[in-house]
Amino acid sequence: MAFDIAVKRVYETPGQADGQRVLVDRIWPRGVAKKDAALTLWLKEIAPSDALRKWFGHEPARWAEFQKRYRGELDANEKTVAQLRAMLGRGKVTLLYGAPDEAHNNAVALAGYLRAHT
Fold first, then answer.
1. What is the 3-state secondary structure (H, E, C) of the chain?
2. At residue 118, does pLDDT exceed 80?
3. How confident is the model at residue 38 (pLDDT cuts 50, 70, 90)?
4. In whole angstroms, what is the distance from residue 16 CA to residue 95 CA?
5. What's this model's pTM, rounded to 2 decimal places?
6. Which domain of life is it from (predicted)?
7. Rounded mean pLDDT of 43-64?
8. Could you read off the pLDDT of 7-30 as tens digits, one per residue?
């Protein structure tokens, strides 16, 4: 079964097509009011560790290694990954993130991980 996963910046306007909206950052994004985020869930436990997040620093040159290390953290975080998979079993999930880089962020890495582990 293929999951219906989307990735979107939390700063973008929520839409009906988003389905369940899950913020996957450990830190709340600046300038976003909780009511405006229209979240189904803030799943900060699925975000990369502080050490990994700081090491990565959104440096595209570290992207491949970041994904490898983050996959290792996700493999060790079975309970939280299972919680997100259960949500995916109920319909579309949009993974929300705050980083300005739309190609190199933890939500993109997480979506890839979930698609590869279905």
1. CCCCEEEEECCCCCCHHHCEEEECCCCCCCCCCHHHHCCCEECHHHCCCHHHHHHHCCCHHHHHHHHHHHHHHHHCCHHHHHHHHHHHHCCCEEEEECCCCCCCCHHHHHHHHHHHCC
2. no
3. very high
4. 14
5. 0.95
6. Bacteria
7. 96
8. 999 999 999 999 999 999 999 999
Average pLDDT, rounded, for the chain: 95
- 40 φ, ψ (degrees, to nearest 5): -85, -40
What is the chain's Cα-based Rg?
A: 13
- Residue type, position 108, single letter: V
Give residue for tokens 């996957």.
24
Q: In the chain, how many domains are there?
A: 1
Judge whether residue 1 has pLDDT over 80: no
Which structural domain, as residue segments, surrounds residue 58? 5-116
Answer positive or negative: Cα dihedral of 68, 70, 73, 74.
Answer: negative
- Cα angle: 76, vertex 101, 104; to 5 degrees: 35
User: 14: which residues sit within 8 A by CB, 6+ positions away?
Assistant: 21, 37, 38
